[in-house]
Amino acid sequence: MADSNPFAAATASPRPRLEQVKELESRVLLRTYDRIPLLAVEGKGPWLYDAEGRRYLDFLAGIAVNALGYAHPRITRVLREQGRRLLHLSNLYYHDYQGQLAERLARLAGMERAFFANSGAEAVEAAIKIARLHGRAIAPEKIELVALENSFHGRTCGALSITGQAKYREPYQPLLPGVRLAPFNDAEGLRAVVSDRTCAIFIESIQGEGGVYPAEPDFLQLAAELTRRHRALLVIDEIQCGLGRTGQWFAYQAAGIEPDLVTAAKPIAAGFPLSCLLARGPAAELFHPGMHGTTFGGGPLACRLALEFLDIVEQDGLLENVRAMGALLREGLENIVRRNAMASAVRGQGLILALQLDRPARPVVDQARQMGLLLNATHESVVRLLPPYIIEPRHVRLALKTLSRALRTVQREQKQLP
Ligand SMILES: Cc1ncc(COP(=O)(O)O)c(C=O)c1O
Fold first, then answer.
1. What pTM was computed for the model?
2. DSSP structure class, residue 149
3. Which protein residue's CA is at the shortest distance from atom 8 of ligand 1?
4. Under 8 Å CB-to-CB from 109, ≥6 apart: which residues?
5. Could you list the pLDDT tens digit for every one of the 418 residues in the chain?
6. How far is CA 234 from the centre of its chain?
7. Pocket test for ligand 1, best of 63, 150, 202, 239 (most atoms within 8 A of CB)
8. CA angle at residue 72 from 6 to 20, to 5 degrees?
9. Considering 291, 315, 339, which residue would you say is the last residue of a domain?
10. How far is the CA of 389 from the centre of ligand 1 (A)?
11. 234 and 343 housed in the same domain
């Protein structure tokens, strides 16, 4: 029995205490994160447990990573089995799983080839490099990268260069030259910046960090048309919304477009770091040996986990579940909008949803956490929900009830302030 529980050792040892961990981290870590006071020790399904034994319904799922919830038995079995055989290899040799995974993902996305890396930002970097190779092969001045205002593509310097939010970019200027930002979902604005100098347009199908704003199908179709007209590449970033989160494998598929490059990452290996860049047509032929690579990307464990993730989603009908639970959650959020003056709109698709508030979302998210529900505040006044694909109606009902209570509590407390 103990063997089937990967957390058995952690739970048997004396539980670490939040204050000690905080104090240690404050001395030894670079100050990149402003953590929430929750010391997690284990998880099971959609539930996360802290060091005091409190249980949280996790509707953030590691920011869209833990799509199968915690400690999925099929994932822990692959971890154990592959852990005994081959964890890492390097990309100097072949192993059984990278090709299989590339073929599966390419088929699901309507693409042809894949490159595997470790983080979303790295997949975006690979796309930027292909975009530049593509442009320079046509004309030396064809190097402009068109991206959208309010976008988020990651924290590496290339990905930051095409991130349309000044707060992330400003401290690191100068970044990559030749980036042009266009307003989101604005056809005229996009037409105004795309030209023969453009080598690629980068679009998130749903702007996740930016507050869960879906790109309109018309806007995606226009971007596709402009890239064809100007011989540029269309790059779709589905790192947050891809691989099932909207109830389809990829959100752009609903718009009927055929991108040249697609990035995906978060849920792909069920919590283990892995990302990929999928490519099609001439864009899939531009890298040659030695032009790009990464030590860890696409190792045997990561790829096996990703194959298992895809099998589970297919065999357990999780895309259907995402659509059904997404509809239920959305309906409940819309009820909240009707009943609570603090909430003004619901955005998103499937299980990437947002509740727009008229005030900072952080106090609501903090209150919900104290009541046992994990959510996220993004873009100041947005409550973002990214639950795992495995949730059931009872989890949705509990989340909605808790969120309503959190909203009412914050409203009451803020009214009482002088
Ligand atoms: C759309 C999108 N692109 C890129 C990234 C960067 O991914 P990572 O943090 O794994 O580098 C993110 C992360 O949230 C994202 O949402």
1. 0.95
2. B
3. 120
4. 249, 250, 253, 262, 264, 278
5. 333 444 444 455 555 699 999 999 999 999 999 999 999 999 999 999 999 999 999 999 999 999 999 999 999 999 999 999 999 999 999 999 999 999 999 999 999 999 999 999 999 999 999 999 999 999 999 999 999 999 999 999 999 999 999 999 999 999 999 999 999 999 999 999 999 999 999 999 999 999 999 999 999 999 999 999 999 999 999 999 999 999 999 999 999 999 999 999 999 999 999 999 999 999 999 999 999 999 999 999 999 999 999 999 999 999 999 999 999 999 999 999 999 999 999 999 999 999 999 999 999 999 999 999 999 999 999 999 999 999 999 999 999 999 999 999 999 999 887 6
6. 19
7. 239
8. 50
9. 315
10. 19
11. no
Measured in angstroms, how far is the CA atom of residue 287 from the centroid of ligand 1? 23
Looking at the structure, tell me whether residues 102 and 227 fall in a common domain.
yes
- Kindly state whether residues 214 and 255 are assigned to the same domain: yes
Within a domain: residue 70?
no
* Domain-located, residue 379: yes
Bridge partner list, 182: 148
Ligand 1 centre and the CA of 265: distance in Å?
8
Ligand 1 centroid to residue 121 C-alpha, Å: 6
Both 407 and 292 in one domain: the answer is no
Specify whether 220 is located in the same domain as 121: yes
Residues 102 and 80 in one domain: yes
Same-domain pairing of 284 and 298: yes
The residue among 352, 362, 307 whose CA lies nearest residue 65 is 352
Instruction: Say if residues 149 and 181 touch (Cβ distance below 8 Å).
Output: yes
For the CA of 209, the nearest atom of ligand 1: 16
Single out the residue in 315, 331, 349 at which a domain terminates: 315
Range of the domain at 36: 2-65+317-416
For ligand 1, residues with CB inside 6 Å are 119-121, 124, 152-154, 204, 208-209, 237, 239-240, 265
Tell me the β-bridge partners of 280: none
Q: Which atom of ligand 1 is nearest to the CA of 156?
A: 11
